[in-house]
Amino acid sequence: RNPDTPMWLLFLVICGIVSCNALPGAKTTITQNGLTYFNSVGMGILQQQIAGLQVPSQSGTVNTGILGNINWSLTNLQISTFQIGTSTIQLIPNTGFQISISNVNCNLGLSWAYQQVDWPNIADSGTANIYITGLSTTVEISVGQANGLPVFKTVADSVNIGNLNIVLHGGASWLYDLFLNVFSQQITQAVDLALQSAISSNIDNGLNQAVSSLPIMEPINPSIEIDYALVDEPRFTGTYTTADQKGEFYAISSPSECPTSVCVAKVTPDSLTDDMMQFFLTDYLANSAGYVLFKLNQLEMTVTPAQVPAIFPLKLNTTDFQTLIPALYKRWPNLGMELVMSATAAPNTQFTSSGSSSFQEGKILVNVILKDNSQVEAFVLAGNLSASAEVSLVNEAIDIKFESAKLAFELQSSNIGGFDVGVLTKYVDQMFSTVIIPEINQIVSDLPLPTVKGLVFSGSRLNWGNGYLCVSTDVTYNP
Known about the structure:
Blueprint: H1 6-15, E1 26-31, H2 32-50, E2 54-55, E3 58-63, E4 69-83, E5 86-92, E6 96-116, E7 123-146, E8 149-160, E9 163-169, H3 176-212, E10 217-219, E11 224-227, E12 235-236, E13 240-245, E14 248-251, E15 277-282, H4 283-295, E16 300-303, H5 326-331, E17 336-343, E18 348-352, E19 355-369, E20 375-394, E21 397-414, H6 425-443, E22 446-448, E23 455-465, E24 468-477
Antiparallel strand pairs: 1-13, 1-15, 2-4, 3-4, 4-6, 5-6, 6-7, 7-8, 7-9, 10-11, 11-14, 12-13, 15-24, 16-17, 17-19, 18-19, 19-20, 20-21, 21-22, 23-24
């Protein structure tokens, strides 16, 4: 059986997507509009799955009156077509949802046979076509979670066959009416049980097996990853369902929780729009990323003379800095320089209704490169950086680009005496905008949103709020 069964798409998207701790670092909401769309896609898959379904063989003994007791059997029962008329999905608050299918037309083929129990043991056989109209079914599903994954369970299902018409082929025509009475009830029961079994098997076995391989940890680069595991059971209201997730970055080599002094959990809404899906990312998640990068020393960078762009007004050598810092040139004339920039604390990022801003404390160590290629410390600047970021959506990922930066620094230590650091402001600003910030943007450029394969966003919008970014979008699914 193809693992893309009709209910799977709906459930994977509902609960395989995002989550939280005491307060979530991320969450995903699907509205009634989204559920209705996924249900329509699922019904197309369901039709394909049921068509070709093998129905278990049936047999028994019945007293016919005319022939006395006969042993009968129905074999090779197979559904050839399964056409759904209408289907609806309804949220069940605090539980899950209910899918109702009606006006289904279903055709089957089978082989039939009988034999008298007593002498003269008359036997006959043939084939039949079964035409069912007005079939309806209702399935109620509860959704929980275990070990960070959603758990689905059919709690109620029913099938009602409206009209059933049997056309027999072969055998004695004068017995057809007798057989129709015997077979009609047995075929109705067989199809009823087969469909109930197929649906519950689809959910309880196939779906849970599928989500067991759903990636919980999403790698960002070789060093860090995001934990998107569910931390609670999905919540269901009358108009949407929301899944809370951990929403936190970790170091792959040495995972540990972000301290509360750095990462502060925020309360976020569950739903803002009627778009099919909404992904909420909090600044808790962003600050956990900064903490991990700081802990892994990935917020350190050395700028050498070769990295300075050709159009830059000053090169990294003491000759070009002679006018700005005469004491530097006097101590080490005509030598190259390098800048060692490092964070002294984890950065702090805040999401507000105006967008995203980050604050970073750090230092700049200025070395002189001697003729033997050894380095000697000239002076150290200490200060902070305030930066804003341009955030956009590229396909199904958040694209983050830091842009404008404001620097404030002072002379922390010096081996050339004191000097006015204000003369370096323009140079350091240009160095950050042309060299440092582009490098930072390469560390975590794209933040993948947790989606299932084949899901494509359309008409997406970004909505900023106090402590969160919401990606609101409609979707299409292409299995």
